[in-house]
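User: Could you write out the 3D structure of this protein bound to pyridoxal-5'-phosphate? I've included everything you need below.
Assistant: Certainly. Input first, then the structure.
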Amino acid sequence: MDKGNFKMKVPFFKHSVGEEEKRAVIEALDSDFLTTGSYVKKFEEKFSEYVRVKNTAGVMSCTAALHLSLLACGIGPGDEVITTPQTFVATTLAILHCGATPVLVDVEPFTGNIDATKIEEKITEKTKAIIPVHLYGQICDMLLIRSIANRHHLYIIEDAAHALTSSRGSVRVGQLGDLSCFSFYATKSITCGEGGAVCTNNAELHEKVMNLRTHGMSTDAAQRFSGKYKHWDLTSIGWKYNMDNIKAAMLLPQLNKAQRHRDQRMLHYRKYCSLLDPGIKRPAILDEVESDYHLFTIWVDPEKRDQILWGLQEKEIGATVNYRSINLLSALSKKLGWHSGQFPNSELIGNSTISLPLYPSLTEDQVCFVCKTVNNLV
Ligand SMILES: *Cc1c(COP(=O)(O)O)cnc(C)c1O
């Protein structure tokens, strides 16, 4: 069995997958059809209902979801896509996978989200899309981003990997984006180990995503194995990103618990806020935002950050960094000519940030222990 960090006093993450999910997986394994079939269809219907969009495509990761979304928008070599340096590398890599060029806009110093007021100055004739990332579960300023996108005829693809339940004022996740991308990776709020989804209200974009996720074939396996044999054609040059029935079966029961689990994370979040020294900085959550509380992050003195991380490890508390500013990662800076000093807000956050454990099964004692330890170390 994989153990490692999980033996700690307070592991960084513990999933909430249990008996119901096990039963669902066994049921799927007992059926004859293991790949993309009825469970995936049912999951896609339920997920569309949950996010309140018309269409969902189940895929193998959020990275695949972002890649397919960009391809469905026709984005390729010569095009530019605007995004944030304060995100996981997948957001940028998906743009590079299409042959397009990522263009970064610095973040707001108080939330870590892309500073929408600085987007317009980075738009050129080559710009085709904006990928806002709802960092830590807080929705970006989507009203402003939508109006900029409309003015310049750009697509919006939401990186909603942190934001399954989030909203901001009257705007829900996935509502103003042309497409939105979700992750079911092991540490995300619902999970099948590795998985993702693309949501959209646009039937044409959905068609393209569905086609491209299975090589570009004109039918999927479930269609080919039902009724009279029909020849399939290859109608575009696609990828192999389709979700399978086993993953979909595992995800279905988790959707019913997502809001409850989010509420449990919110309670832990509030406990952290009440027990940590008031001098310790953390990202602000705006009044009109319902966050998913995906991560609990503190921002400490960059000079002391790594010492504090190691101190937490020593006390058997799992902690990690989400994220060092992506313009400073060597392969990206080499390829794109990015360097330090370009995105001061993102770089400062990247050098100060520590993510502390946040998941439903955390106990009050554990939160107290983490806070006491952090207060001592800071
Ligand atoms: C997890 C994550 C991704 C990538 O998700 P995968 O499903 O692992 O591909 C993309 N963006 C953000 C912000 C993430 O946190």
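The mean pLDDT is 96.
User: Perfect, thank you.
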